[in-house]
């Protein structure tokens, strides 16, 4: 049932993602346009429980659309996973007159958002993660910037790998998901792409392909490995021992989470943040903003969390065809 809100809060939670600032700006400016007051909650649910809450106006979000990271900071908070922590969070919202919240984060953050909604605080989630691993949406804030950052880094590694006629394993982020690996695998013309969703652990087959590629005259051999598989350094040692080809491992790590957001991340994040504030202004709660089949839509949080996602089979099959 719709419940009208006067003051909303906004927080970022979980891993940061480039474009989160654009989303915050979208929330704040839209809410003000709708006649709502806005409060920024610092450091995710941790800051909520610590009552790190600041008033925000239109100028609080000036000069941030082009900046990576999140001006509200982010954190992980075990305490908020407990019923007591969630009750306390809802109570603090009431104390500060916050009757609606926009949570920008990933699946974990949305579980928390669902709990707040059940405790009577109108809550809307906005998908912010470089991993693209939120089932209800084809787009998550930060993925586009992260794949572009990783792609540029991999191009550079490829140059040196070719010069030294080496094999390179490059590990990209993606806790349980291979989206960054798959996109970079295609964009960087990698020789092999290892995805947690598909890798069968057959390292001998991988080694055989490295040997075959060298016989065919390939000067480098780029293997993109997803963080969800990991073990890039030990894999490199085993490939070198088995093939006699010098092999280096590079873990790109957190550089993929930073940097100035791409145009796409700025625009989509702005629209999603704005849509979240509009949903709150309409009295909606327990919804997740998503981008599906070319439209901005919203889903019930629990329904969205129950959805399953897998990498697109067609994209994976084409990637495999193109690596040979
Ligand atoms: P992400 O949102 O990127 O998936 P996490 O999984 O680390 O990141 O979750 C971010 C935060 O969301 C956690 O630190 C915790 O405070 C909160 N959270 C995660 N899972 C739950 C849960 N089941 N119930 C309530 N809050 C949760
Ligand atoms: O959720 C995004 C992500 O970048 C994952 O790909 C990665 O596993 C994780 O965050 C790392 O998080 P942190 O080092 O901040 O704990």
From TrEMBL:
Reactions mediated catalytically: beta-D-fructose 6-phosphate + ATP = beta-D-fructose 1,6-bisphosphate + ADP + H(+)
Subcellular location: Cytoplasm
Pathway(s) where this gene product acts: Carbohydrate degradation; glycolysis; D-glyceraldehyde 3-phosphate and glycerone phosphate from D-glucose: step 3/4
Gene Ontology CC terms, in alphabetical order: 6-phosphofructokinase complex
Chief site of localization: cytoplasm
EC number: 2.7.1.11
Residues binding ADP: 25-29, 158, 189-191, 216, 218-220
Reported cofactor(s): Mg(2+)
Keyword line: Allosteric enzyme, ATP-binding, Cytoplasm, Glycolysis, Kinase, Magnesium, Metal-binding, Nucleotide-binding, Transferase
Regulation: Allosterically activated by ADP and other diphosphonucleosides, and allosterically inhibited by phosphoenolpyruvate.
Highest taxon in the source lineage: Bacteria
Annotated positions binding Mg(2+): 107
Domain named Phosphofructokinase: residues: 8-278
Family annotation (PANTHER family): ATP-DEPENDENT 6-PHOSPHOFRUCTOKINASE, PHOSPHOFRUCTOKINASE
Role according to the record: Catalyzes the phosphorylation of D-fructose 6-phosphate to fructose 1,6-bisphosphate by ATP, the first committing step of glycolysis.
Family designation: Belongs to the phosphofructokinase type A (PFKA) family. ATP-dependent PFK group I subfamily. Prokaryotic clade 'B1' sub-subfamily.
Protein name: ATP-dependent 6-phosphofructokinase
Source organism (scientific name): Candidatus Caccovicinus merdipullorum
The organism's taxonomic lineage, starting at the top: Bacteria, Bacillati, Bacillota, Clostridia, Eubacteriales
């Amino acid at each position: 049932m719709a419940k009208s809100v006067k003051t909303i809060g906004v927080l970022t939670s979980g891993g940061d993602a480039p474009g989160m600032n654009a989303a915050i700006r979208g929330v704040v400016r839209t809410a003000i346009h709708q006649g709502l007051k806005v409060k920024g909650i610092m450091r995710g649910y941790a800051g909520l429980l610590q009552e790190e809450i600041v008033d925000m106006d239109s100028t609080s979000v000036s000069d941030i659309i082009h900046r990576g990271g999140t001006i509200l900071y982010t954190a992980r908070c075990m305490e908020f996973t407990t019923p007591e922590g969630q009750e306390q969070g809802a109570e603090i919202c009431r104390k500060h007159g916050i009757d609606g919240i926009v949570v920008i984060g990933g699946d974990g953050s949305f579980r928390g958002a669902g709990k707040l909604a059940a405790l009577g605080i109108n809550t809307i989630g906005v998908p912010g993660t470089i991993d693209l691993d939120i089932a209800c949406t084809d787009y998550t804030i930060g993925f586009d910037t992260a794949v572009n950052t990783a792609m540029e880094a991999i191009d550079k590694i490829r140059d040196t790998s070719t010069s030294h006629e080496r094999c390179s394993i490059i590990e990209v982020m993606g806790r349980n998901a291979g989206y960054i690996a798959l996109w970079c695998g295609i964009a960087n013309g990698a020789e092999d792409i290892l995805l947690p969703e598909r890798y069968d652990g057959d390292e001998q087959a991988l080694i055989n392909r490295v040997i075959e590629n060298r016989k065919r005259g390939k000067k480098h051999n780029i293997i993109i490995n997803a963080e969800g598989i990991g073990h890039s350094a030990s894999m490199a040692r085993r490939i070198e021992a088995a093939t006699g080809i010098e092999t280096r491992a590079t873990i790109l790590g957190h550089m993929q989470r930073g940097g100035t957001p791409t145009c796409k991340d700025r625009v989509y994040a702005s629209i999603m943040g704005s849509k979240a504030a509009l949903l709150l202004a309409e009295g909606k709660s327990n919804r997740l903003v998503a981008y599906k089949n070319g439209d901005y839509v919203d889903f019930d949080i629990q329904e969205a969390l129950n959805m399953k996602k897998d990498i697109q089979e067609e994209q994976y099959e084409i990637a495999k065809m193109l690596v040979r």
